[in-house]
């Protein structure tokens, strides 16, 4: 089952915020969580539900509930005195958003535009599985305002996909990439490495086949075995080997080499793009500390110094909205220290995003040592930026800890 929500203060039923003095000064985005999947992958602890787990609510009603929350959100922000801003980026994640009809996704996107306005040239992304779209649905999405699709490829190797409980045919990936390109959509491929039983040669096969599709963007994430998942239980029982950290590091270096040689530049520790124009603007908004409203069951939001998250089950979410109450389950106010820690933690992962001047004096004094150990780029530091080397990316958490100690 999905992981538990954080423990924090209860959220008020009216959802009203107490905005800080800088409210409205950063860009505003919208995340839409679509919590439906055909099957639950063994490694996944996201807030997702299969058909048998949707007691008390129908998937067909979800788009209407999401639109209700969008209208509610606009009222909350206005009544809280948060300045109105048009939406810079929209991201539909999950789950598998394209388990819903494309018309439903377009309806939600249209509601966002009608409620706040979407800036010209904004990025609007939906995640999709290779087996959950076709030419007609992609045409509907593009005509409805979507600009980008992110496919969950994960691997090109059948035995790796089987370990991950992925059900799509890897041979379908080039087809759906081409279909999206025909519609003028930007395309990203998401990959996972260090799956139990995956060799370096397997990983090279996946990288080569991803590059052969010529996507605009590639994400590559090291598998984390979460407690409470089916895979976590299998690893605990010794039925699957735990991921090997040294092999994972070799896989990351291979990805950086292969993607770099193919014309993709890293811009965040786990993300590469074919030029700055193809970087995920929505994900960059998280890493840069922008505001966003998260729509849907279990979705997280961060606006004007307050962070909150919605109730998890789709039935509980729908019931809250139908009663006129906020779907939020808990919230926290971000104090100055938390904001500083999160700024360093997230910005350090983004190429050129963290300025040395943003660090506290003690941390600035440690940058020279990080350069000497090959973890921070010296030439970037001369320009006033903290930029991780490849070795630094492999040890990003340790670098951040040193900057925060």
Determine Rg (CA atoms, Å).
Answer: 21 Å
Order of helices and strands: EEHEHEHEHHEHEHHEEHEEEHEHHHHH
Structural class from helices and strands? alpha/beta
User: Which of globular, elongated, flat, extended, rod-shaped describes the shape?
Assistant: globular
Largest sheet, order of strands side by side?
8-9-7-6-5-4-3-2-10
Instruction: Point out poorly predicted stretches.
Output: none
Whole-number mean pLDDT: 96
Helix proportion of residues, in percent?
25-40%
Main sheet summary: 9 strands, mixed
Q: N-to-C terminal Cα separation, in Å?
A: 35 Å
Number of strands: 13
Percentage beta strand: 15-25%
In DSSP terms (H or I, runs of 4 or more residues), the helix count works out at: 15
Give a verbal description of the structure.
- The chain has 405 residues and is an alpha/beta fold.
- 38% of the residues lie in helices and 19% in strands.
- The chain has 15 helices and 13 strands.
- It has helices spanning 62-79, 102-116, 135-143, 158-163, 172-182, 200-212, 230-236, 245-261, 281-287, 314-322, 336-347, 361-372, 378-382, 390-394, 396-404, and strands at 9-10, 28-34, 87-94, 118-128, 148-154, 186-193, 217-222, 265-268, 271-273, 291-295, 300-303, 306-310, 328-333.
- It has a nine-stranded mixed β-sheet with strand order 8-9-7-6-5-4-3-2-10, with helices on both faces. The chain has a four-stranded antiparallel β-sheet with strand order 1-13-12-11, with no helix packed on it.
- Strand 8 (265-268) and strand 9 form a beta hairpin.
- The longest helix has 18 residues, at 62-79.
- The chain is globular and about 55 Å long.
- The protein starts with 8 loop residues before the first strand and ends with a helix.
- The model has no long low-confidence stretch (mean pLDDT 96).
